[in-house]
């Protein structure tokens, strides 16, 4: 009788162990799939729509701060006399991105509005720096 009780106890213990492992794997997979979905929904880039022919059509992913300017040290270099050496920057902020004019001489427009303070940018927004036009797009 004691052998039957021990065998039953072992079976119950193994079943509980398998249930625990199943729940842990299921939770872990949900976290990985959910994180990938959120990252792909938020993944944005700056695409040069109008500008110097060398960079027209180029897209720069917004995975971190992106400095736009004429300086060779900028992340997106635009060789145009109307663009300051460090003209503007786009930085991740919360669940989105913010564009900030860095005191440029000719200013920055977001959807036709002057960027006199940091402005949020989303997919579809148009950023103008002099004669250059950038568009915020989803990757």
Q: Could you outline the blueprint of secondary structure elements for this entry?
A:
Elements: H1 2-42, E1 44-50, E2 59-61, E3 66-69, E4 76-77, E5 88-93, E6 96-101, E7 109-110, E8 113-114, E9 119-121, E10 126-129, E11 132-138
Parallel strand pairs: 3-4
Antiparallel strand pairs: 1-2, 1-11, 3-5, 5-6, 6-9, 7-8, 7-10, 10-11
Structure, described:
The chain has 139 residues and is an alpha+beta fold. The protein is 29% helix and 33% strand. It is built from one helix and eleven strands, in the order H-E-E-E-E-E-E-E-E-E-E-E. It has one helix at residues 2-42; strands at 44-50, 59-61, 66-69, 76-77, 88-93, 96-101, 109-110, 113-114, 119-121, 126-129, 132-138. The strands form two sheets. It has a six-stranded antiparallel β-sheet with strand order 2-1-11-10-7-8, with no helix packed on it. It has a five-stranded mixed β-sheet with strand order 4-3-5-6-9, with no helix packed on it. The protein is rod-shaped and about 95 Å long. It starts with a helix and ends with a strand. The mean pLDDT is 90.
Strand order in the sheet with the most strands: 2-1-11-10-7-8
Radius of gyration over all CA atoms, rounded = 26 Å
Task: Write down the secondary-structure element order.
Answer: HEEEEEEEEEEE
What is the total tally of β strands? 11
Relative strand content: 25-35%
Distance N to C terminus: 66 Å
Structural class: alpha+beta
Question: Regarding quaternary structure, how should these chains be classified?
Answer: single chain
């Amino acid at each position: 009788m004691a052998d039957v009780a021990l065998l039953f106890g072992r079976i119950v213990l193994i079943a509980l162990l398998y249930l625990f492992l199943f729940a842990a794997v299921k939770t872990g997979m949900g976290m990985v799939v959910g994180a990938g979905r959120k990252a792909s929904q938020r993944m944005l880039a700056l695409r040069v729509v109008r500008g110097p022919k060398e960079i027209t059509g180029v897209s720069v992913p917004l995975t971190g701060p992106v400095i736009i300017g004429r300086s060779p040290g900028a992340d997106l270099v635009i060789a145009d006399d109307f663009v300051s050496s460090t003209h503007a920057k786009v930085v991740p902020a919360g669940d989105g991105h913010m564009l900030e004019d860095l005191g440029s001489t000719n200013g920055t427009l977001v959807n036709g509005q002057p960027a006199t303070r940091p402005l949020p940018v989303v997919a579809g927004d148009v950023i103008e720096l002099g004669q250059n036009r950038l568009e915020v797009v989803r990757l």
